[in-house]
Amino acid sequence: MLSCQTIMNALERLAPRRLAEDWDNPGLLVGSCAQKVSRILVALDVDDAVTQEAIDRRADMIVAHHPAIFRGMKQLRTDLPLGRRLTALLTHNIAVAAAHTNLDITHGGVNDVLAERLGLEKLSAFVITHQEDGVTESLGRVGSLPTPLSIEDFAHAVKERLGVSHVRLAAAAARPVRRVAVCGGAGADFIDDAVRRGADVYVTGDVKYHEAQRAVEQGMHIIDAGHFGTEAPVLPVLVEQLYAELAAERGEIEIFVTNTQRDVFDVITS
Q: How much is the CA Rg of the chain, to the nearest whole Å?
């Protein structure tokens, strides 16, 4: 076993909390730094299914992308979903940590994994969050495809490479795809940034109708591959990164990806 603090130290090296946006809530959210951990479940969300999975698989800790506690709490109501989950986690002595926008921004995190999965090369910063001593940190990435593709072919490639059931495409006028901007999760706020960076297409999730319309009006394609679909690829990578960070520690540890969590949306075709 390892201490929870040892796990948190490893997570801090991978996705430093200083990278997180001001409104975010990463870090240890449930449990004690002193408790012992031998099994870690990695997931996007701490929902009811993941909570029960952690109990069933005897996990001592959940490392999630989205914070289990996001806004300030004034009550702990056990008859409501969040209170019920927190009670179950505390009852079974399961610690919960989150690495959210810090995992989005960090090198090797959500957006680097997404860009690599889509076959992008020559990556550069997208929405810059910090610059110091020649180091640039940003939400999202901009990269290039090895060879240009039609927007239809690229949309099919995104669907296949992310393993999602569908993507939503808003295509602009005929424009081959070479330069691609990506932002895992909900990145529609950065559509204008993608246009300014000269992207032929922007891949993100949670895009609304008028947001897609604005992208097309500016001559840029947009592909909505879903919040879940654009973030889930980081989970197995995070497992391997944690193993690597903890390799020199004395103590047995098992780290595994959730096998119950799935996209909250289903697609009904008939």
A: 19
- Pairwise CA distance, residues 139 & 255, whole Å: 27
- Residue among 140, 69, 132 at smallest CA distance from 104: 140
Q: What would the pLDDT profile of 229-266 be if each residue is shown by its tens digit?
A: 999 999 999 999 999 999 999 889 999 999 999 999 99
- SS3 for 25? coil
Q: What confidence tens digit (pLDDT) does each residue in 100-124 have? A: 999 999 999 999 999 999 999 999 9
* 8 A C-beta contact, residue 95 and residue 4: yes
Retrieve residue 26's tokens.
């990463």
pLDDT at position 137 is 97
> Domains in the chain, please, with CATH?
2-103+232-257 (3.40.1390.30), 107-225 (3.40.1390.30)
Instruction: Give 146: exposed, middle or buried? Use CB within 10 Å, 0-12, 13-18, 19+.
Output: exposed
- Residue 166, token pair as written in the block: 């569908």
The arrangement of strands across the sheet holding 221-224 comes to: 121-132, 135-149, 177-186, 201-205, 221-224, 168-170
